[in-house]
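Q: I'm building a small set of examples for a reading group on sequence design. Run inverse folding on the following structure and report the sequence directly after it, with nothing in between.
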């Protein structure tokens, strides 16, 4: 902010100019402009992210299989389906680290159901990016399944959201 009396550059919120002493408390500050990033986050639906198809496994599959698929596709999560194909859990890198630390049995022996997060929150393709970010912040997680009629069709990650914003906001 520039002092109207002497032209000195002052910090926003400063009460007076350090050079001339001009009272700055009565000056109005311009409101921030709503830019493209604001629009992307608040208005764009998750369908715009072109979310990747998820890795899906069953509760009885083993953790070694999940880790192999996650590593090969460079994904941080696997969606877990029940017998009918409905979403029943999510297995993330964080689940693996937190729930398997100190266990000595081979990963091939451990079923996903013992390590996964059951009944994960999910969103639909019509939900906004803002909604996904809010769920992530409040829930403390980085991956959210995207479902259509109860079946997973993709997932959104914080990395995917940031990539989308970087490509579309500038």
């Amino acid at each position: 902010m520039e002092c109207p009396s002497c032209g000195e550059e002052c910090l926003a919120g400063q009460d007076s100019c350090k050079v001339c002493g001009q009272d700055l408390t009565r000056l109005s500050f311009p409101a921030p402009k709503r830019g493209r990033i604001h629009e992307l986050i608040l208005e764009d639906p998750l369908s715009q992210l072109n979310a990747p198809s998820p890795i899906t496994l069953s509760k009885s599959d083993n953790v070694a299989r999940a880790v192999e698929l996650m590593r090969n596709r460079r994904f941080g999560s696997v969606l877990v389906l029940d017998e009918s194909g409905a979403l029943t859990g999510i297995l993330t890198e964080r689940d693996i680290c937190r729930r398997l630390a100190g266990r000595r049995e081979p990963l091939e022996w451990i079923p996903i159901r013992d390590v996964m997060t059951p009944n994960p929150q999910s969103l639909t393709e019509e939900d906004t990016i803002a909604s996904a970010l809010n769920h992530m912040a409040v829930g403390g997680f980085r991956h959210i399944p995207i479902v259509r009629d109860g079946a997973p069709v993709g997932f959104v990650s914080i990395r995917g959201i940031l990539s989308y914003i970087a490509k579309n906001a500038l």
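The chain has a mean pLDDT of 89.
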